[in-house]
Amino acid sequence: MTENTGKVISVNGNLISVEFNGIVSMNEICYIKVDDAILKSEVIRIRGNVAQIQVYEMTNGIKCGDLVEFTGEMLSAELGPGLLGQIYDGLQNPLPVLAKQAGWFLERGIYANGLNTEKKWEFTPTVEAGNVVRAGEYVGTVPEGSFLHKIFVPFYLLGNYTVKSVAPKGEYTVKETVAVLINERGREIPLTMSFKWPVKRAVKCYSERLAPTEMMETKVRLVDSFFPVAKGGTYCTPGPFGAGKTVLQHTTSKYADVDIVIIAACGERAGEVVETLTEFPELIDPKTNRSLMERTIIICNTSSMPVASREASVYTSVTLAEYYRQMGLHVLLLADSTSRWAQALREMSGRLEEIPGEEAFPAYLESYIAAFYERAGYVRLPDGSTGSVTIGGTVSPAGGNFEEPVTQATLKVVGAFHGLSRERSDARKYPAIDPLISWSKYKSVIDREKIEFCKNVLHHGFEISSMMKVVGEEGTTLTDYVTYLKSEMLDAVYLQQNSFDLVDANCGKERQRYVVDKLVRILGSSYSVENKDEARSFFNNLRQKFIDWNYAEFKNEEFSKLEAEIDKLYCKASGKLSKLVQKILEDDAQ
Amino acid sequence: MGKVYNRIESIVGNVITVKADGVQYKELAQINTRFGKSLAQVNKIEGDIVSLQIFAGGQGVSTGDEVRFLGHEMRVSFSEDLLGRIFNGSGEPRDKGPALTENMKAIGGPSVNPTKRILANRMLRTNIPMIDMFNTLVVSQKLPIFSISGEPYNQLLARIAMQAEADVIVLGGMGLKYDDFLYFKEEFSKGGALSKTVMFIHTASDPTVECMMIPDMALAVAEQFALQDKDVLVLLTDMTNFADAMKEIAITQEQVPSNRGYPGDLYSQLASRYEKAVDFADSGSITVLAVTTMPGDDVTHPVPDNTGYITEGQYYLKGGRIEPFGSLSRLKQNVNGKTRKDHRALMDSMIRMYSSYKETLEKKNMGFSMSKWDEKLLKYGELFENKLMSLSINLTLEQALDLGWEILAECFQKEETGIKSDLVEEFWPKK
Asked: Chain A closest CA to B309's CA: distance in Å?
């Protein structure tokens, strides 16, 4: 590394201008030396011999003439065994380590290694001397939690390499050499179990990208049945404050059917991270019977932490996600909230005095958002296995109005939209995903015609309820009133779900198929009710039974008993299936 | 340290520039004008041109005035002597007491390491039923009070301050009417809370820049007390004035505005203050209650909107009462399972009934006929509003719960409440 330095010539918030003499590259990391610390920064604009840099820390006390040291490296994440279960800040500093060094507060200028360099890992080689390897292939494995963590040929190595030697099976730290490669010109390259990768570049060491067709179960009925998300797909959850974005993501992080969950708490409340930290180690992942924390990585850059590292945090998280994808694992990245990231971009853009776009967001907002979501995907790896990164981002639109730039830019690139509405959350209807505005381009676990039928009931019910607000119950016909009651029931027993109840929150796809069949039958039938009171009391009874049914474990005794009671109610009101629905059910049965 | 400059290059609003070397970002300076001394803070450095915002405002500053750099950032003195004292945004005494200069602490410090926080799980009793019973305040919570001008929000704050179980109270007043300042002073001394209170007061007629310092001063002091094992309650009123002060400075310095003239970093600025609310593992805590007035009763205005995304719920103050709808304490479920076993069930049931009452009331106003059930709801709603919602009511949580049962018993049959039968049997008032 060459000694390359510069001097501070202006300070404006966390944007600093530096005069330099040597060679400086875009997005290079540099350190500012102030009296009490060195502050990590990133080059974001170069003009002549002046570089403008954003500082990942508070900039108090910086003065003109302060020394700046350029490192020649881009902002990178350290990849290797030991990432799982960690709590990092946006720059991959492990927070518990910082707490040991600095105490209560995140004092500036204190950085720590992303991986534990002392811990020994049980390495098993998978190649032999003489084998030819490429970037993205692996030379050995170590067990990490319930996974076999692959030790890769670093993703940045270009071309073919011959293995000269590989360490025997045994225990090594991430800094010890486990293999030596030779490139085509005969140069030796020692490999350790960890390497660095610049976070703003997507990892592309895969054979091909596949279409996301396999569904990712979230166990949320409204999502899986109506607005599903595919593994390797993307979705966004915009909603006003208090609509339950974070609770929804929290539930997803617990129940989603993936191998690894990465939570990027980006510019949100610290209290929520503390909640996850307190809760997750106690919870058991039913798939592996291990603590849920062992499949989780938390990247936490809360709202009061410096803005520039908030911007870095989403890239750090997606890089870790891609790294585990390369091992043939299915990774879910939950970013809460992407609006805070966009605001971080806006703050820097303002300081750079760029010409502002809509609501002062920079003109490149859309392409940045698109590039971020495009890092999701379902891929085939060099060894033939498949892995995926699924990205779910929350959006916090100002005033809950979806017509703002971040929501709109996000909607252009994602595959599913789960719009939360204030009306539903005010009425305590959770999850507050509005079924009338949300959409998904992925395939559901449930037959499409059944879902279309249910959606129709909802639309129709909504129209009638709007009309009823004007003409009153008296002015509505009995048929319309029954349709309205049906849509209310569908909402109450299927769309709404209690995320705090263990059984109800964890509603698998088998159960969803089973329940939807029953529901379609009920909603698609006509009943012999004489008047509105009778209709209301019938549906109230049915609804109550159905809700109890939701709380019973799938196919246990209680479940069958309640199902029988539901059937009895149905028969008593002499339910008669309509031809259309009969056809739908028969078609699917074939 | 004390470099002195005698030449001010430009004066725009509250911001001046001087040519100076070796000045640190955020460093303080003292400027001597014909009206006396004032502090100023560096907020931009471009080569040798240094911009400073003058705490006392730009009025009457002349190009020949003397600027002396102090070599340190904004600080506040911290000791037990603060208790019972009143200061302005520059940290100077507003009462007749002596200036404090010992043990100076920097303000606006770094944020707490999330791994050093613990889950908020202690209830903060206020003896206001609408808070304790329906939207419980939790130690280390940050909650705004959304209100429109004219509502008695300062009275509410003062009452919470008097009745809350806090070791230390820090009041930060921004753009306060002088009357309100006097009101707080009088209430606190009348209630005997003055001796555990520190006040940082900026009144509406004081210079704008001082307004921006108030939350940082108040929270820096609170943090020091919290690290000494104290439970601190910070009251801020009114954060909209704080945001407006930021807007004023940002526009003066020609920053690109984002939404309705507010600077693009409004969210981060508000968040860095609110996030000071904390429950330290093995030490004290900071709870933040902040009034946010909503211009035009519009919750989508940038200030309440950004605030809502930061805080852990909100209280809506409307018509002199805390509205049960819309008001939300996100942390209440952390504590209300441990108070009394009927707490949650009674709370849910009473709110559900009240919402039915509201619907019935609407029906009644539209001229529909009232059924027997409707009559019951109407009676219930009236009792609920008068006996529990009014802000003048002062009851412990247990008394409020008992009263809740009494109200239910007065209006309904047991089975009409929708509460689990065993709870009803245990708590239903016996006549």
From this structure: 5
Question: Which chain A residue has its CA at the smallest distance from B116's CA?
Answer: A104
What is the homologous superfamily of the domain A79-111+206-440 according to CATH?
P-loop containing nucleotide triphosphate hydrolases (3.40.50.300)
Backbone angles phi, psi at A3, to 5 degrees: -80, 105
C-alpha B403/C-alpha A224 separation (Å) is 45
pLDDT one-digit tens code per residue, A483-534: 999 999 999 899 999 887 888 888 999 999 999 999 999 999 999 888 888 9
Interface test with A, best of B121, B268, B274, B364 (most A CBs within 10 A): B268
Q: Which residue of B has its CA nearest to A275?
A: B119
Residue B2 binned pLDDT confidence (cut-offs 50, 70, 90): low
Tell me which residue in A63, A270, A304 faces B22 most closely, judged by beta carbons.
A63
Burial tier of A131 (Cβ tally within 10 Å: 0-12, 13-18, 19+)? middle
pLDDT at A1 over 50: no
Whether B46 has its CB under 8 Å from any CB of chain A: the answer is yes
pLDDT computed for residue B421 by the predictor: 79
Integer CA distances (angstroms), B347 to B79, B342, B384, in order? 42, 8, 12
Cβ within 8 Å, pair B23-A108: no
Out of A63, A241, A359, whose CB is closest to B309? Answer: A241
d(CA A338, CA A315): 11
Choose the CATH number for A4-74 among 2.40.10.170, 3.20.20.390, 3.30.1330.30, 2.60.40.1120. 2.40.10.170
Asked if A418 and A227 touch (Cβ cutoff 8 Å), the reply is yes
* pLDDT over 80 at B276, yes or no: yes
Partners of residue B73 in chain A, C-beta under 8 Å: 60-61
Strands (DSSP E) found in B149-239: 168-176, 197-203, 231-237
Nearest CA in chain A to B298: A399
CATH of domain B75-333: 3.40.50.12240
* pLDDT above 70 (res B336): yes
Burial A104-124, CB ≥16 within 10 A → b, else e: bbbbbbbbbebbbeeeebebe
In CATH terms, the fold of domain B4-69 is Thrombin, subunit H (2.40.10)
Q: Which residues of A touch B368 (CB under 8 A)?
A: 472
Rounded Cα distance, A540 and A195, in Å: 61
Q: What is the mean pLDDT of chain A?
A: 92
A398/B280 touch (CB, cutoff 8 Å), yes or no: no
pLDDT tens track for A207-221: 999 999 999 999 999
CB A192 within 8 A of CB A158: no
Which DSSP letter does residue B6 get? -
CA angle, B340 as apex, B335 and B343 as ends, to 5°? Answer: 75
Whether omega before B298 lies within 30 degrees of 0, making that bond cis, reads no
Instruction: Name the token pair of A476.
Output: 């509505």
- Say yes or no: B47 contacts chain A, CB-CB below 8 A: yes
Query: Between A and B, how many residue pairs show a Cβ–Cβ distance under 8 A?
Result: 169
In terms of average pLDDT, the best of A47-61, A464-478, B252-266 is: A47-61
pLDDT in tens, A54-63: 999 999 999 9
Q: How far apart are the first and last CA of chain B?
A: 78
Q: What are A119-136's pLDDT values in tens digits?
A: 999 999 999 999 999 999
Number of H helices, E strands in chain B: 12, 21
B 293-322 residues with CB below 8 A of A? 299-302, 305-306, 308-310, 312-314
pLDDT band with cut points at 50, 70 and 90 for residue A268: confident
With CB atoms and an 8 Å threshold, state whether A360 touches B73: no
How high does pLDDT run on average in chain B?
91
